[in-house]
């Protein structure tokens, strides 16, 4: 009797490389990790990483976390993040990723919406006590049973995962490795509000394949990931791309340009994955002479409507691949040609690589009847974005929808037939990777008091930036803290001259 084919998981990909080259370098920490978290940077082989993953996985099992339960993770781009995600999957858990810029209210909402059983964080990141944030959020989430952290000076009641890594692995359990099982939950903000977005392993792997095949990343490459990992795009561009290439993953906590350049050269990185505007900035600074080992650059566009008007790429030794991001809905990539300009993106199915005939279909791009961009394909979680049932029609079956409407305004270019993305979803603002409704901004501004100013200004690197008047800054920080904003989000507040 033939057994049905089982698609791989992220842990399956890791163990394939582990069996082939256990002593090869697997993970490289940021060089400035001591400043960011207080830990010294680590360099781990596949065998060393496997031992750490086994120890963390055993701890999750021994703690009584049932298979298929949710574990929330709020960690920076360090080795601990990768180890925790793979350990959770090995224990049969589903990972919910929590962005570092989130407010207390959003942390609590996410934990309650996903019924998370545990939360893992770092004691401090850039001087901010994330351990305290996690403990306060867990106190308001009925489902949380375990709060765990890396680092020193953890609050009472928080388990130390550094101690777990220091002792031999314990109990394990057999978990069926099937790529169709749930792997992660990320969170999006749409016009309808806050939305959890679950994904199976094969969806994450499809996102990584779309990037790695389009960019032509070689097997065994050393990949530098300088993009915040707490999202679908962040996981696909770091974890999935690394596991598919079977090389080494170097991590950078965004952003310190000098440290990033030093890391690339010290680790002889061949691939750089970073926000597109940062990549373009590096490309204008004699990339071939300053970072000669680079052979591929992948630029991730949080604001895909800006791609068409971007500057030409002038580093031919390391071609640039533009990756268009649409929140948590999905992505697609397009490698630039020899002229360094963005290529036209046509509607319909697109392969990976895009220009190669007969290549595997990575997804499909379409124009919806509302004049917005739609996506479908293996990486697109259609069910998570299903429109709400009309009031009064709960007993009437709704027509099935086989695509996700991203909300980005788009049109077809008449001469070429290419898709032109013209504007982001209405009513949604973004500061870096932090997305929120414009109504939230109005509420924050109201709390600043009479005569104060708080607005979101367009920013080519981060989408938008919060801006106000200099004389309002002290009052602004106080008011935003009262609203429960994460201190890093408060630090995004700037006056029009750029002073804090």
Question: Describe it for me?
Answer:
The protein is an alpha/beta fold and 500 residues long. The chain has a domain at 428-492: 2-Layer Sandwich (GMP Synthetase, Chain A, domain 3), CATH 3.30.300.30. It is 29% helix and 27% strand. It has an 8-stranded mixed beta sheet with strand order 2-1-13-12-14-15-16-17. The chain has a 7-stranded mixed beta sheet with strand order 9-8-5-3-4-10-11, with helices on both faces. It is globular.
- The count of β-strands is 27
- Largest sheet, strands/sense/barrel: 8 strands, mixed
Q: How does the overall form come out from the CA principal axes?
A: globular
Based on helices, strands and strand pairing, what is the structural class? alpha/beta
Strand arrangement within the widest β-sheet reads: 2-1-13-12-14-15-16-17
Helical content stands at 25-40%
CATH architecture group name of the domain at 428-492? 2-Layer Sandwich
* Percent in strands: 25-35%
Average pLDDT for all residues: 85
Low-confidence stretches: 483-500
Estimated radius of gyration: 22 Å
Report the CATH superfamily of the domain at 428-492. Answer: ANL, C-terminal domain
Question: Gap between N and C termini, in Å?
Answer: 68 Å
Q: What is the helix tally?
A: 15
* Text of the CATH class of the domain at 428-492: Alpha Beta
- CATH topology of the domain at 428-492, what is it called? GMP Synthetase, Chain A, domain 3
Which helices and strands occur, and which strands form pairs?
Elements: H1 10-20, E1 25-28, H2 33-37, E2 43-45, H3 46-62, E3 70-74, H4 79-90, E4 94-97, H5 104-114, E5 118-122, E6 124-125, E7 128-129, H6 130-139, E8 146-150, E9 159-160, H7 161-165, E10 182-190, E11 193-200, H8 201-215, E12 222-225, H9 232-245, E13 248-251, H10 257-266, E14 271-275, H11 276-283, H12 287-290, E15 296-301, E16 320-326, E17 330-335, E18 348-352, E19 360-367, E20 372-376, E21 404-412, E22 419-423, E23 428-431, E24 434-437, H13 438-447, E25 454-459, E26 463-468, H14 473-482, H15 487-490, E27 494-495
Parallel strand pairs: 1-13, 3-4, 3-5, 4-10, 5-8, 8-9, 12-13, 12-14, 14-15, 15-16, 26-27
Antiparallel strand pairs: 1-2, 6-7, 10-11, 16-17, 18-19, 19-20, 20-21, 21-22, 23-24, 25-26
């Amino acid at each position: 009797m033939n057994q049905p084919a089982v698609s791989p998981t992220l842990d399956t990909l890791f163990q394939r490389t582990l069996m082939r080259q256990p002593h090869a370098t697997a993970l490289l920490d940021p060089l400035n990790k001591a400043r960011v978290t207080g830990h010294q940077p680590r360099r781990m082989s596949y065998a060393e990483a496997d031992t750490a993953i086994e120890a963390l996985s055993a701890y999750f099992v021994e703690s009584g976390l049932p298979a298929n339960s949710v574990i929330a993770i709020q960690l920076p781009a360090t080795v601990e993040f990768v180890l925790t995600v793979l350990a959770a999957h090995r224990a049969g858990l589903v990972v919910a990723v929590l962005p570092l810029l989130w407010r207390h209210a959003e942390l609590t909402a996410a934990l309650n919406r996903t019924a998370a059983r545990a939360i893992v964080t770092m004691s401090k990141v850039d001087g901010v006590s994330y351990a305290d944030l996690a403990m306060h959020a867990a106190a308001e989430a009925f489902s949380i049973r375990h709060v765990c952290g890396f680092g020193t000076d953890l609050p009472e009641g928080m388990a130390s995962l550094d101690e777990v890594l220091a002792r031999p692995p314990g109990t394990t359990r057999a978990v069926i490795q099937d790529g169709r099982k749930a792997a992660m939950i990320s969170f999006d903000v749409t016009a309808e509000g806050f939305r959890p977005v679950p994904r199976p392993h094969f969806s994450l792997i499809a996102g990584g394949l779309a990037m790695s095949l389009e960019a032509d990343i070689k097997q065994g490459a050393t990949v530098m990931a300088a993009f915040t990992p707490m999202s679908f795009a962040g996981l696909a561009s770091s974890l999935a791309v690394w596991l598919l290439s079977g090389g080494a993953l170097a991590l950078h906590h965004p952003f310190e340009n000098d440290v990033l350049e030093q890391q690339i050269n010290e680790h002889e990185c061949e691939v750089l994955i970073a926000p597109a505007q940062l990549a373009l900035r590096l490309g204008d600074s004699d990339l071939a002479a300053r970072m000669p080992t680079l052979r591929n650059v992948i630029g991730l566009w949080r604001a895909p409507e800006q791609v068409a008007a971007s500057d030409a790429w002038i580093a031919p030794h390391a071609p640039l691949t533009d990756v268009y991001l649409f929140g948590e809905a999905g992505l697609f990539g397009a490698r630039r040609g020899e002229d360094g300009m963005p290529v036209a993106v046509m509607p319909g199915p697109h392969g990976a690589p895009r220009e190669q005939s007969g290549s595997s279909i990575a997804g499909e791009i379409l124009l919806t009847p509302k004049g917005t961009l739609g996506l479908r394909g293996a990486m697109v979680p259609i069910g998570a974005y299903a429109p709400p049932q009309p009031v009064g029609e709960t007993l009437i079956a709704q027509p099935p929808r086989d695509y996700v409407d991203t909300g980005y305004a788009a049109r077809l270019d008449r001469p070429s037939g290419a898709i032109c993305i013209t504007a982001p979803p209405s009513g949604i603002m973004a500061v870096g990777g932090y997305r929120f409704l414009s109504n939230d901004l109005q509420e924050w501004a109201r709390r600043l008091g009479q005569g104060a100013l708080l607005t979101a200004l367009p920013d080519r690197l981060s989408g938008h930036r919060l801006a106000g008047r200099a004389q309002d800054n002290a009052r602004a920080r106080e008011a935003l803290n009262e609203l429960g904003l994460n201190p890093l989000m408060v630090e995004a507040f700037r006056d029009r001259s750029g002073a804090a």
